[in-house]
């Protein structure tokens, strides 16, 4: 009995599948708002970005959430600059109006680093690690184990060492 081979699958870009489901227009709007959210600080500046965030672009109107009425007024003052920045940075040219909406907690806050700062290890600590892995005969494996253990100790919280 001859085995039948399966035909080779062809990869298609994710964008083509999404555009078939959502439509080209909706996909472009989603991509535009995604670009805008990622680089919102470049568009409005660091202070305003902490208190505002773009919500969506619908029928030529950019909707922005603000956390305080003073920020809504600031957005109104900067309407033309925001439109120009959207066009200059992301080639979004269909924004004819900007509307604000009060939303407590609005704003795009920078991600906080969760990684502990690396600390220096003493020569004594390194000798102790080398003694722990001395029984491993494969040199490359021993080296990898040494590096892994060094980094584990360097980045471990102070109360875990």
Overview of the molecule:
By secondary structure, the protein is mainly α. It folds into two domains: 19-102, 2-Layer Sandwich (GMP Synthetase, Chain A, domain 3), CATH 3.30.300; 123-160, no CATH class. It is 50% helix and 12% strand. It has helices at 14-22, 24-38, 40-44, 46-49, 69-77, 79-90, 123-132, 139-155; strands at 52-58, 61-66, 97-102. A three-stranded mixed β-sheet has the order 1-2-3. Helix 1 (14-22) packs across helix 2 (24-38). The termini are far apart. The model has no long low-confidence stretch (mean pLDDT 84).
Task: List its traits.
single chain; 161 residues; mainly alpha; GMP Synthetase, Chain A, domain 3; 2 domains; three-stranded mixed beta sheet; 8 helices; 50% helix; flat
CA distance, first residue to last residue:
63 Å
Give the helix level as a range of percent: 40-55%
Give the total of beta strands. Answer: 3
- Which strand order spans the largest sheet, edge to edge or round the barrel? 1-2-3
Q: How many structural domains does the protein architecture include?
A: 2
List the quaternary state of the chains.
single chain
Tally the helices: 8
Which consecutive residue ranges, at least 5 long each, have pLDDT under 50?
none
Mean pLDDT: 84
CATH class of the largest domain: Alpha Beta
Shape: flat
CATH fold annotation of the largest domain: GMP Synthetase, Chain A, domain 3
Beta content comes to 5-15%
């Amino acid at each position: 009995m001859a085995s039948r081979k399966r035909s080779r699958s062809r990869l298609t870009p994710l964008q083509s599948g999404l555009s078939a489901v959502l439509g080209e227009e909706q996909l472009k709007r989603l991509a535009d708002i995604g670009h805008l959210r990622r680089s919102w600080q470049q568009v409005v500046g660091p202070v305003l970005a902490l208190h505002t965030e773009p919500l969506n672009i619908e029928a030529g109107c950019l909707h922005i959430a603000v956390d305080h009425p003073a920020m809504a007024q600031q957005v109104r003052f900067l309407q033309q600059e925001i439109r120009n920045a959207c066009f200059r940075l992301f080639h979004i040219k269909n924004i004819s109006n900007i509307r604000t909406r009060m939303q407590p907690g609005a704003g795009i806050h920078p991600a906080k680093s969760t990684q502990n700062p690396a600390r220096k290890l003493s020569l004594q600590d390194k000798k102790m690690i080398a003694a722990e892995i001395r029984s491993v005969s494969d040199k490359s494996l021993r080296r990898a184990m040494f590096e892994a253990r060094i980094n584990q100790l360097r980045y471990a919280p102070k109360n875990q060492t």
